[in-house]
Amino acid sequence: MNFDKYKEMGPIDYWEQYYSEQVEQIKKLxxxxxxxxxxxxxxxxxxxxxxxxxxxxxxxxPRAESQILNDDWDYHIPNDGKWExxxxxxxxDDGFSRDTLAMALITxxxxxxxxxxxxxxxxxxxxxxxx
Length: 131
Prior knowledge:
Elements: H1 11-31, H2 36-40, H3 47-52, E1 85-86, E2 89-90, H4 96-109, H5 111-117, H6 120-130
Antiparallel strand pairs: 1-2
């Protein structure tokens, strides 16, 4: 990476520029056919940049029955398992990491089990959302 163009910038300008370039790079990769799975497994991009570029929080597809998670689990555990809350949102990133973890848990437990453990009020809300 050529850092010469950043020499005259202050730290805030540098990070804003770097952030913008990262988001644009991710969008370019998406347009070239890079999958969400490939992007989420790429440690070169922050979860914030991935989220802002339109990448879904997970590439997993929850099914009715439970699925085993192997290496996928590692890509769905935010902050190496450290849980922090800010304004009621875990992981301090507007919910992206929370949603990533939720997808892994729902994939592992299966949709059938999720519905089994939901209270009736939640099942009714879910029915409204699906209709």
